[in-house]
């Protein structure tokens, strides 16, 4: 997270860490329902070397190749409220395109759900599509400025950017922003997600219901925090139906 | 002379007809026609010497046992009778005609010319003799007749009386009514009816004659025609007949045979009896606490069955097995097949654990019996109950925890989402 601030303990109890068995974190995620993690699809397969990136040619991470930690705050040191959870199975979005990051969303089913408490709580699914200009909070353990990893979970508060503005900005870089994506950040850059934050939550407060809900998950971007380089996130509302079909979760 | 005639018709004339007949002669014609016919005789010409009471010349018509007519002279007077246009009919299939002339005949008498023919006897209309007439229906045909019977009856081998097939009446119910066939109409003739009352050992059958009792009898001889006999075990009661019904009979047996026999005559209305089988009485029963006995009777006897059931929320407990109802039977030795079971309050047992929730008992010492209440609640604030139900479950009469919305399904605690205990101050400017 570039230009972020440390997260206050217990204010983002849905944030999950995806880490290798050696404890090395590699992505973020969000707890959904009692035993599901929403994250980015590109977190869960080996880095590509061939052009053929259709779903069934991706080499998925095996459930035993990573674990999920919730209730986490510090990046590498253990926390008193963290719960380490094993993975039962992984579902990539059926229309995920590893080349273009379309539908870059995946679901991880946990073998056992965590114990919910003040530090572990699921995020709600959005009831409405995201609003341009709405303030959202993105959190993660990814790189900060000067490529250094943070000691603790960091967060930024940024606005959602108009889809067309974002699409045109990326068109100059020959990048395609599609309808299943959301952009957020400031035009002049500054606050942004970065490598290692992928899959992490973009949330906003639904004032009507007094609930935080998941707007998007960190997906991709060019550089981190540069001018006209918005962060691109996978739109959860766009894929809500698929998420509910797979998980059966409703708010 | 004797002439035997067997034709169905014929002519008979005096000797020498139409010349005068000789004196001092006697001629008999015996006419026989088949059964079912009679003979009709009539004269076309008649001219005999007349005499007081036809003592000289005459024609005599007779059957085996009676003189039908004696004719003489030319016309009928108060002492002589000529046939004129009269027809003489024989009662049966035989007629004998005798012509006699005495020794002196001053005048010339030309005698007679007679004709005869067989005519059918309509046994159906003529037969007075009850002994021989048809019992139900009579069908006359030329030369005879036959009988038939009403629906449900069978023509007896005597081809006259109608009997019924009534030898396989079996009664197995504990009570019943038995009557003679077609009661209260006259019972059929020539019938041998057998009514069997067959019950399980342990029952005692008692008989009671009712209403009309009318079986053909005889003033001196005991029931020589029709009668009813009752066989119960080794005992045989009867024969009964006449118009006075026998007294109520307690046969002391579980198997009784009633034999009713009728001969081929008589028009009597028969009889009707009701029977009841009772068994040994069993002791009075007390319903279990929280239960009831059905049917509730002052006394119970052999084969009576009762159903024990419990009030709502209680189950019948027998040999540690719970059931909804329990049946008992009064046995033939006057004991009950079982002891009265008890009624055990339905117990829903310890309620199932609720994932991410807890159960609390709303009644003293965590009762789990009928009507007890428990309350499921989810671990707040992290979980909340799906469907926003009360979580209150009541132990139902079927021994199942029931919720008014979910029925017997357990509630579900869903994670509460998006409402962290610690809230940040939004830094948005």
The assigned structural class of chain A equals: mainly beta
Helix tally of chain A?
2
N-to-C SSE string of chain A, H for helix and E for strand: EEEEEEEEEEHEEEEH
Number of helical elements of chain B: 1
With strands numbered from the N-terminus, the spatial order across the biggest sheet of chain A is 6-5-2-3-4-8-7
Please characterize this protein's 3D structure.
The complex is a heterodimer of chains A (251) and B (429). With 251 residues, chain A is mostly beta strands. In chain A, 7% of the residues lie in helices and 30% in strands. Chain A is built from two helices and 14 strands, in the order ββββββββββαββββα. In chain A, the strands form two sheets. Chain A has a seven-stranded antiparallel β-sheet with strand order 6-5-2-3-4-8-7, with helices on one face. A six-stranded antiparallel beta barrel of chain A has the order 9-10-11-14-13-12. The longest helix of chain A has 9 residues, at 163-171. Chain B is built from one helix and 36 strands. A five-stranded mixed β-sheet of chain B has the order 1-3-8-5-6, with no helix packed on it. Chain B has a five-stranded mixed β-sheet with strand order 14-16-21-18-19, with no helix packed on it. In chain B, a hairpin with a 2-residue loop joins β10 and β11. The termini of chain B are far apart. The model of chain B has no long low-confidence stretch (mean pLDDT 89). At the A-B interface, β12 and β13 of A face loops of B.
Q: Which helices and strands, and how do they pair?
A:
The complex is a heterodimer of chains A (251) and B (429).
Chain A: E1 5-6, E2 15-19, E3 25-32, E4 36-39, E5 67-70, E6 83-85, E7 87-92, E8 106-110, E9 135-140, E10 154-161, H1 163-171, E11 181-184, E12 201-206, E13 211-220, E14 231-235, H2 240-247
Chain B: E1 2-5, E2 9-13, E3 25-32, E4 37-47, E5 58-62, E6 67-71, E7 87-89, E8 94-101, E9 111-120, H1 123-126, E10 137-141, E11 144-148, E12 154-155, E13 162-163, E14 169-171, E15 175-179, E16 192-198, E17 203-214, E18 227-232, E19 235-240, E20 249-250, E21 255-261, E22 270-279, E23 281-282, E24 291-294, E25 300-301, E26 305-310, E27 314-318, E28 321-323, E29 325-329, E30 342-345, E31 357-361, E32 373-378, E33 383-385, E34 392-395, E35 401-402, E36 413-415
Parallel strand pairs in B: 1-3, 14-16
Antiparallel strand pairs in B: 2-9, 3-8, 4-7, 4-9, 5-6, 5-8, 10-11, 12-13, 15-22, 16-21, 17-20, 17-22, 18-19, 18-21, 23-25, 24-26, 26-29, 27-28, 27-30, 31-32, 32-34, 33-36, 34-35
